[in-house]
Amino acid sequence: MKVYYVHSGFQQIYAYLDQAIVHSLNELGLSKQTNAYNEVDLLNDCLIDPPDLILTLLGSNLSTHTIETLNRKRIPMAVWLTEDPYYIDHTVKQIFQFDYVFTIDSAAKKVYEDAGHSNVYFLPLGTDPSVYYPTNKISNNQYDLMLIGYPYLNRVRLIQKILASLKVSCLVVGKNWSKYLTENKHLSLTILDQWISPIKVNQLLQSASIHLNPHRPTQLKQNKNRLKINSNSMNNRTFDLACAQQFQLIEHKDDLSDHFTLNKEIVSYHTTNALLQKISYYLQHGQERMEIAKNARKRVLTDHTIQCRLKQMITLVMQPQRKSLNNEA
């Protein structure tokens, strides 16, 4: 099978995801061509020499004209919806433009199936081992805790509670943290108020004992989620941290135990009080932390890389085709 990959059209983290997918398709021998997104080139390429599958992330960068033209030529198209369920009001309408829909959240999968799409699959994003890996540059952890990500209110309140309850040093990384927290008020807090690339993130990860991974809230004003669908699945940072062999305390999700063995490969928490207890415990048990982190990396390299996901995707896409061929026979 040959896959024509259309870049998402977004920058920062999505530029890295595009790059990782293209690299993995090439390694698997599946890449027919890639398009950094030019509609004219896309249509010319695919109409002259049709691929077996067109794949894109999000799908919002493809115009209706382009999609309809490709559909008329019966070129199979797949979209990987990597922001679910936060914009599901929009994506539930968008899915019918594509033959195959892959979503990173199992709750969103049910919504799409209930809406009537017949080829919907749960497929979390994976990670890129060439970007996330353990290093030995920092022998002693500089911070007890680290949280990388946007300062959603639940994350801000979590950091405030931790700093008020425990004597720990903490680094928060991401744009706009300084709007909500100040180093002057919290002397044990360090703020890096900027977006940093995954390559630099991997270098920074090595400087903390414990990484906090609270998820984005489902109910935010900026979300497009009138149905109030609660996410069942982990964010991609879960896999990135594990691949970098970093110990994380992750907010519990229903799907977590399907991807990692709890307390052996990953440790979750259900409440803030439980998190406080686990922070105190694991800061005192460094060897146990390291063993769990090593186990997590082994699991990710086996099951949760971008390359693993693309193999799963192609297998799922091929299944309906095999059924069709069998019926014709």
Notes on the structure:
The protein is an alpha/beta fold. It has 2 domains: 3-126 and 305-328, Rossmann fold, CATH 3.40.50; 143-303, Rossmann fold (3-Layer(aba) Sandwich), CATH 3.40.50.2000. The chain contains 11 helices and 12 strands. The strands form 2 sheets. The protein has a 6-stranded parallel β-sheet, sandwiched between helices. A 6-stranded parallel β-sheet has the order 9-8-7-10-11-12, sandwiched between helices. Strand 3 (53-57), helix 3 and strand 4 (77-81) form a beta-alpha-beta unit. Helix 8 crosses helix 10. The radius of gyration is 21 Å and the shape is elongated.
Can you give me a brief rundown of this structure?
The protein is an alpha/beta fold and 329 residues long. It has helices at residues 13-27, 39-48, 64-72, 88-94, 106-115, 153-165, 198-205, 237-243, 272-283, 286-303, 306-328, and strands at 3-6, 31-35, 53-57, 77-81, 100-103, 120-122, 143-148, 170-173, 189-192, 208-213, 248-251, 267-269.
List keywords for this structure.
329 residues, alpha/beta, Rossmann fold, 11 helices, 40% helix, elongated
Question: What secondary-structure arrangement, pairings included, does this model have?
Answer:
Layout: E1 3-6, H1 13-27, E2 31-35, H2 39-48, E3 53-57, H3 64-72, E4 77-81, H4 88-94, E5 100-103, H5 106-115, E6 120-122, E7 143-148, H6 153-165, E8 170-173, E9 189-192, H7 198-205, E10 208-213, H8 237-243, E11 248-251, E12 267-269, H9 272-283, H10 286-303, H11 306-328
Pfam family, one: Glyco_trans_1_2
Protein name: Spore protein YkvP/CgeB glycosyl transferase-like domain-containing protein
Organism: Halalkalibacter hemicellulosilyticusJCM 9152
